[in-house]
Write a structure and sequence with these properties.
Strands 5-8-7-11-6 form a five-stranded mixed beta sheet. Strands 1, 4, 9 and 10 form a four-stranded parallel beta sheet that branches. It folds into two domains: 294 residues, 7-stranded beta/alpha barrel; 161 residues, no CATH class. Helix 1 runs parallel beside helix 3 and helix 10 packs antiparallel against helix 13. By secondary structure, it is an alpha/beta fold. The protein contains 17 helices and eleven strands. It starts with a strand and ends with a helix. Helix content is 46%, strand content 12%. Strand 2 and strand 3 form a beta hairpin.
Length: 484
Amino acid sequence: MSEPRYVIIHGHFYQPPRESPWTGLIGPESGAAPFPNWNERILSECYTANAHAHAMEGSVVHVRNNYEALNFDFAPTLAGWLETHGKAAYRAMKRGDSLSAEHHGGHGNAIAQPYSHSILPLLPSRDRELQIAWGIEDFVYRFGRKPAGMWLPECAADDDTLASVAAAGLKFVILAADQARWHGAEAESRSAGPFLWRGGDLNLAVFRSDRELSGTISFGEGLVDGARLAEWIAATALSFEPGAALVIATDGETFGHHNKHGAAELARALILLERRDDVVLTNCAEYLAHHPARGSFEIPIATSWSCPHGVERWRSDCGCRLDTNTSQEWREPFRLAMEFVKNHAEAIYDRFAPAIVKEHHAALLDGIRVLIDSNLAVHDEFFNRFKVLNESNRETLLRMFEMIRAGQASLTSCAWFFDDFGGHEGRVVLRWAARAVELAAEHSASIESELLERLREINSSGRENGNAATLYLSLKTREARGRV
């Protein structure tokens, strides 16, 4: 009997860090009604819905945890919010990974994601290293194991990005079919490969997602009927050579938030696929363990899955927009302003941290753990390892780690994805930038005046938002009132 074909369905679960950098709480967001904010709404419609998805089969109701069958990643900042505010979904996510590892020879469904969902090709090497290291450390904290692979925000990649991922010890990433050059026997097919990227002594497996089926699920009729979806998936996989894999990748929020019945229809499709003998549901890590890369992979320029102009959507008026009547001239100066904040935070850390911890760069790479893990034994182990014994110095170092995290959050990608910085996403990064500026001012003269000068030159498409400085100040005032 010939080897079956394999199917991998990946869900990329992500929300921007909407909580206040000062209080950890999310303020009211009227557009999310009847829920108090978008996180709560999407928690109900998607994250919890997939934890116990209901699929009808005649008069029988199947209740299943979709995370047991999905290859998935959860943004570290989202996972942190779920740990406190979405405990049922959080437990289901972790249990899904644990059970999948039992069923797939120790290879769990979950993969990592860089910490702040920033566009890695637009970051200097130091920040890429930090984003990847923090993403791995957050993953280890939540799943109790090292990740095998990593989802790149917006699938944005170039050679330097892939080199950073490989250097961190990760084995694979997932990219869209039209992002690069694929070579080998399977290059002309729709199969996932995987393909092998090489950069000097480094190498990395690259899974290729199927653009047609992924798009049908995300934007078409793929989730209208789970049974029909299962047939589409199986028929596509069976058109491949025996042993080949089909990878489908989409935003996880498609399953329940973007599509009201998405979680239920996904569950229905998964049930039907699991009953087949000619296709096998698996995850990337297990497939790679038994099917090494078959072809090669080249990525001549920086690309992403959501901008045909490479990665310009996150730094220029490239033409990508939702409303054709708007201009995105604000993108470049807005990015430069946020980079100004991030760079200042790093300069403050480099100047003052060495007096507290000798290996200040190594400490920063590991430092996210003491921000996300409240276990005092973990804190003691960390500070003892880096020989920070004075209690006051420990507190100062923690606040500097928080300053760096806030500076990194000011480059969260979704602030540039939409048509104006005045929406929820732009407000997110302005709040985090304000927090970074505030924490940096504990060590040196504040840069807020210079930041405001830069922001005053950035005008919003929406008259109600004015310029970026006006919005920044109004957000700070609102936050201050909320803390009184």
